[in-house]
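S1.2 Input.
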Amino acid sequence: MLVHHFLERNTRENPAGEAIVFGGRRISWAELDRRAGAFAARLARDGVARDDRVLLFMENSDDAAAAIFGVLKIGAVFSFINATTKQEKLAGIVADSRPAAIVTDGERAPTALAVAGSAPGIRALYTAAADPQGRATPLGEVFEAEAPLPHAARCLSIDLAAIIYTSGSTGVPKGVMLTHRNIVSAATSIATYLENVRTDRVLNVLPFSFDYGLYQLLMVSLFGGTLILERSFTYPPKIIDLLVAERATGFPIVPTIAAILLSMKGIARRDFSSIRYVTNTAAALPRSHIDGLRKLFPAARLYSMYGLTECKRVSYLPPEELDRRPLSIGKGMPDEEVWLVDETGRRIEEPFVQGELVVRGPNVMQGYWEKPEETAKMLKPGKYPWEKTLHTGDVFYQDEEGFLFFVGRRDDIIKTRGEKVSPKEIENVVCSLDGVAEAAVIGVDDPVLGQAVKLFVVPRPGAALGESDVLRHCRANLESFMVPKYVEVRPELPKSPSGKIDKRSLR
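S1.3 Output.
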């Protein structure tokens, strides 16, 4: 099974089925497959071949979905780049990946063209909008005029399908290499525990450049459902209207979206009875958000999940465990094995002992694109001579039943007064205070303490929340060495393109 086989199977079995709802358009599986085939034919005609890289620098759209599958049909490798990427960073990604083609849209076309002008290896440019100067081929013309590729290229499941760029600890993006097998395995495992079926309608507001958003498209293609696609969560009332009008059954979110939803006035009066599951990843939800979401979506099962780009998904907490272990991210997903190791590499069997999380399974990446030293830090020899296991750099502990609890990134742990402090633990406590929408904790250099705890807080709209209120709550609920030395109340926190709080900016 290859990734584009998802699309082709749906076209055979359910050609008139609704694949994508976007911008007032309803695209069937047969139409999406036809567009992908037309784009594949044009790529081949323009000299793009098997194993070439193709960058997609654009916002979410049905055109973007067709382009992804078109790239895969000719055996090439797609890399979806966040639409907010600036020219200098894009140039660095182009230099790193050496693409044969770039696909963009109207707003990003000038940036893409400027970068392409200094990249001689680029053989073709395509745009989702008209280019009056004729420098890029409009996708609309390709979809309408090009005869679809009669047969997809012959590929193997171990061939590279995608390179997903993710932020590195040094600030330089790293390209996570994923094969068809990696993607098919991850999508199948996730759809298995979510119990997805063809009648599911998933509303996705997360960018395709974020693997959580990309996999909504891939998973819907796997089980043959419908993707209700939006570009972002910028206009929450519009998204709420879509959830209701389209009778969505699945709603993937991140904590930032949860915070916005729970602060919206009048939202509790809307009919969300169609939603059967809500998923969360990127960061753990505080207990107050869990309780709020369960009240807002009473018919939905709420899945707390954990993952990283290097293996897509690691674990999920069965919804029936949510009351018993609200802060756990569960156990490893199907077709995967996870465990903890200490600093010597010894496997930790004892409960409540902190260690680094290790992941083994067909979902584990092949490495970072042309970065062998970075790859060697993350991928270590596995059970068999031919396999590698992923050493995540994330610190967890497990309870007596094997459920995992996130402590923090190894480099996020704050050492203060000789004690190790987890930012996540403080953030969970602060978010339980009435009136708090979001919280973020970092360590700052301190000549006496080594590091001091600094807390950033965003109040809910209308909440009268001051530094003294937050500190009083912290002193009542945290050990003394965990109480922040500094508290800063802000109207908002900086976010990464994937919706995570950008702690690097806070530092």
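S1.4 Remarks. The first strand starts at residue 18 and ends at 22.
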